[in-house]
Design brief:
4-stranded parallel beta sheet; alpha/beta; 2 domains; Rossmann fold; globular; Diphosphate--fructose-6-phosphate 1-phosphotransferase; 9-stranded mixed beta sheet; EC 2.7.1.90; 23 helices; transferase
């Protein structure tokens, strides 16, 4: 495969490791843990892996050596920059423990484990993918590991390959599956450890021990570069309002980070909309007010950032979607038999009066998507709703009404953008290259320590890499009970934007100025070479969270 000059140069980059991972180490156990909520229910479901302690690695004199063992690895869910470095860190870690150790990759995600589709990852293969974006070394998939027959089928190939530990690299759902798998293998004494690694560009898999999920740093820098380019164009032409939708169905972390990096005129934060119990019209009026205010000073242009999951944060629509999900889960067989032309009528007949009224008030395109498009969990596919176009259209209508009433005398022309896939497979930033390599190497040390049901944790990441702290946390610690497909199930609780957190507070302090003025920042492309203050900076979110 022919490589670009940048790829060739990046292949030579050696990711940095925390001090504790550079030599021999000792695993120091901390306090026992409990789940973030629903402790009794979660403990009952995970009797063998619940309540385990925090773990921290500390450097000691000597060398780390283990008996020969084979390890398996799975990339699960959507791509995020740095996945290849997690695998290269894991590979280097197990080879350091014993050069005879082997790493097997399961092809196209969890289905590779169940279907016995795998390949050995040799040094020659791994070296081709160091510091590159994407998950193409073994591919990824969204198959869920949640049934006993899947676990048993997976165990067959693990035993056949003499694999003693399995590392699952994924987001909250994937690591929930890792936790369930670890519990099952421990319960039947299968002799297979299961370790998770925190991945998602959405940034919603984090807590005090998992400060950030990998890929968030790179993806938000990619989006911010393009937003900056749009801002430069916007400030040059001075005639368009650009509505930009950004990745993040369940949380607005990506949108907030991009706002902190670029200073758009308007940024919508889903968690704030929900907390203030705002309606769709409230949101539209907020944008229209800012547009009208800028127009009074001759500025008929600007940039609006919209989180992908905004619709679901509007309380009235969130209630509607919840009832829709429950109703369709209970009536899926009947619903599937209804012709597409009659599905909206079917939905209206089965909704409460309150939610039926809200459903009817939505534009037809949105109501059709809510009724017809479902994800693999049976839920509404919020990402398919073109929220940026919906808002632009509704703001335009409101401004037209205001113009008739003499309340608006400006111009309003729009452009629409959605940035999602553009950031998922970018070449990882130095931060993500280092962080991911550390997560993978750290996972090998959790395996050496005999742990299962743990997530690889590397924290203190707003400081230089030398000061990063390596260890692990029990995945059960992150669990709570949530309704999925009409049933209560244990899942990792998503981390939302905290409205009392420093990143949000900083944003609130500056957004009025950003709305009224044109205070755009143009971040430019990710820099991989040069001074540390240019190349190695973490996200604004991470920096502010540690102030």
């Amino acid at each position: 495969m022919e490589k670009s000059a940048l790829q060739i140069a990046r292949a030579a980059y050696q990711p940095k490791l925390p001090l504790a991972l550079r030599g021999a180490l000792n695993a120091v156990e901390g306090e026992p843990t409990q789940s973030v909520a629903d402790q009794e229910e979660v403990e009952k479901l995970f009797p063998n892996t619940y309540g385990m302690p925090y773990l921290r690695f500390e450097p000691v004199d000597g060398e780390m050596k283990t008996q020969q063992m084979n390890v398996g690895v799975i990339l699960s869910g959507g791509q995020a920059p740095g996945g290849h470095n997690v695998i290269s860190g894991l590979f280097d870690g197990i080879k350091k423990l014993n050069p005879a150790n082997k790493l097997y990759g399961f092809i196209l995600g969890p289905s590779g484990l169940v279907e016995h589709n795998y390949m050995e990852l040799t040094a020659e293969i791994v070296d081709e993918y160091r510091n590159t974006g994407g998950f193409d070394i073994i591919g990824s998939g969204r198959t869920k590991l949640e049934k006993k027959d899947q676990f048993d089928k997976g165990l067959e190939i693990l035993k056949a390959l003499d694999i003693k530990a399995l590392v699952i690299i994924g987001g909250d759902d994937s690591n929930t599956n890792a936790c369930v798998l670890a519990e099952y293998y421990k319960a039947i004494d299968a002799g297979v450890q299961v370790i998770g690694c925190p991945k998602t560009i959405d940034g919603d898999l984090k807590n005090s021990e998992i400060e950030t999920s990998f890929g968030f740093d790179t993806a938000t820098k990619v989006y911010s570069e393009v937003i900056g380019n749009i801002m430069r164009d916007c400030n040059s032409a001075k005639k368009y309002w650009h509505f930009v939708k950004l990745m993040g169905r369940s949380a607005s972390h990506v949108t907030l980070e991009c706002a902190l990096q670029t200073h758009p005129n308007i940024t919508l934060i889903g968690e704030e909309v929900e907390a203030k119990n705002q309606t769709l019209d409230d949101v539209v009026t907020y944008i229209a007010d800012a547009v009208a205010d800028r127009a009074t000073r001759g500025m008929n242009y600007g940039v609006v950032l919209v989180p992908e999951g905004l619709i679901e944060f509007i309380p009235a629509i969130k209630k509607l979607i919840a009832e829709l999900n429950d109703m369709l889960a209970a009536n899926q067989a009947d619903f599937d038999l209804v012709a597409d032309d009659n599905k909206i009528s079917y939905v209206l007949k089965h909704l409460s009066d309150e939610n039926a009224a809200i459903f009817k008030s939505l534009p037809l395109s949105v109501s059709r998507q809510l009724a017809l498009e479902r994800d693999p969990h049976g839920n509404v596919q919020v990402s398919l709703i073109e929220t940026e176009q919906l808002l632009a259209e509704m703001v335009g209508k409101k401004l037209a009404e205001w113009k008739k009433e003499g309340l608006f005398n400006g111009k309003f022309s729009t452009q629409h953008h959605f940035f999602g896939y553009e950031g998922r497979c970018a070449a990882p930033s130095n931060f993500d290259a280092d962080y991911c390599y550390s997560l993978g190497f750290n996972a090998s040390m959790l395996i050496a320590a005999g742990k299962t049901g743990y997530m690889s944790s590397v924290k203190n990441t707003s400081k230089p890499v030398d000061e990063w702290i390596a260890g692990g946390i029990p995945i059960t610690m992150m669990m709570n009970m949530e309704k999925r497909n009409g049933e209560m199930k244990p899942v990792i609780r998503k981390a939302l934007v905290e409205l009392d957190g420093n990143p949000y507070k900083y944003f609130v302090c500056h957004r009025t100025k950003w709305a009224r003025e044109t205070d755009f920042i143009y971040p430019g492309p990710i820099q991989y070479f040069g001074p540390a203050e240019v190349c190695d900076q973490p996200t604004k979110t991470l920096t502010l969270e540690h102030e």
